[in-house]
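WARN no homologs supplied; continuing
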Amino acid sequence: MNKEILREKIWEVLQGHSVEEVKTHLDNLHPSVTKEVLEGFSKEEILRILYIVAPEKRADLFTYFELPEQIEFLDMMDEKSILDLVTYLPYDETTDILLELPEDRHRAIFRMLAKKEREEILRLESYPEGTIGSIMTSDYAYLPPSLTASQAINKLRRDTSDPETMFYAYILDSNKHLLGVVSLKQLVLANSSGVVDDFMQKDIIALNARSPVRDAVIELEKSDLLALPVLDSQGRMAGIVTHDDIADVAKEETTDDFHRIAAAPGLASMNLKLISFPQLLMKRLPWLLALVFMNVFSGAGIAYFEDTIEAVVALVFFLPLLIDSGGNAGAQSATLIIRALAVGDVRMKDWFFFLRKEISIALTMGVVMGMGVSLVAAFRAPEVMVIVAMTMVCTVVVGSLIGMLLPFALTRLKLDPATASAPLITSLADISGVVIYFSIAKWYLGL
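OK structure emitted
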C-alpha cells in the first residue's frame, strides 16, 4: 500500500471506520516511514493513531519525533499511557523524556516504574548533561568468559530481552569489569565448543562515562564500530553508546555550532517550525544587542578621524569595502578552526603552528586583494590608491588572525569555541579596520 492510500485509510479510521487494516499496515512499516505517512495530521490525530499501533511499535515510532513534539504528546497523555509507553523505551530515551516533564509528573511516573528501571534512570540522571554517561544506554548484551560459543548463543537467546544492539556481546567478570568483546558473527562462526575467553577481542576501545560527548563522536568515527562500551570511574561496565545515538549527538553538536557561529545559540534541540516567537526572539536578540553596543566603538573611531575624512572625502567610498573584507577573512578563518577543533583535527597545542601558517596565508590573500582594490582606486580616487592597498593587506591579516586566535582563546578559557561567532568576529574586525584605515591615511597623507 503506498503512502497516499495509507493516509486516506488513516483518515477513514479517524472518521470512525475499522482500524484493523490500518493497524496491520502500520505494524509492518518501519517507524521512519510511518512518521512520514503521519506528516500533515494534527498532534491530536497522530496521538489517536499511536494508540492503534502495537505497544513496541508505538515506542519505536515515538523516538522518531523531535523532543519538543514528544513533550507535546506527553502533555496530552495520562500517566498510565505514559507508563505504557516508557516501558518499551530504552532507558536513555526514558530518562530524556522524564527530565523534560514537570516535576510533579516526573515523580508520579517515576514511582510507577519497576525498581530496576528506577535504579537505571537514577544512574543515568546522575551524569551531567554533555557527558557520555548522559547519552549511553544500559541495555546491552553481556556474557561471562567461561562459556563455550554454543552456551553463549543459548544464553543470549534466553537472557537478553531487548538490548539496544545485538551486534556485540561484552564479556564481564563477576564485578562487571570489562574483559573483552565478541561480535555475533564471531559467536556464530566459532567452534561450538570453543571457549569465549579464547577468541574474544581483548584489545578494547572503551569510553569514560564522565568524558565529553564529543570524545564518543570522535572515537566511534575513528573505530568505525556500531557501538562502544562505556566504563564508570571504577572501570566497571556502565553501558554502551551506539552509532545512532552518536549520529544524533553529532547532528545536534554541528547544529549548535552553526547556531553559535550565527550568534543564535541554544536552538539545536528545538524545531524551527515549532519554536514560538518569544523563544526565537530571546535566542537571537541578546548577542545582536550586545554587538550593537560593541559597534559603537567603530563609530567612535570614525568620529576620532573626522578631520582626516573631511580632508579626503574619497576615503569614505572605500570604507565599507575594506572593513567588510577584514570581517569576511576573519569569519572564514574562524569557521575553519572551529570545525577542526570540533572534529579533533586540531588541538590546543597547535595554535602557534596555525598562527605562523595564518600569517603567511593572510598576507598573500591581503596582497592579492590589495592589488585588486588599488585598481578600483586608480579609476575612482588615485590619491588614495596606496592607502587602500596598504589597508587591505593589514585588515585581511588582522581579521584573519582574530578569527584564528579567538577560538583557541575561548578553548583555553573552557568556553565553546563556536562562541567566536561570525557577528562577533565581524564586529572586532570592523573596529580594527576603521582604526587601521584612517591611521594609515593620516600617516600617509601627513595630516
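The chain has a mean pLDDT of 80.
OK
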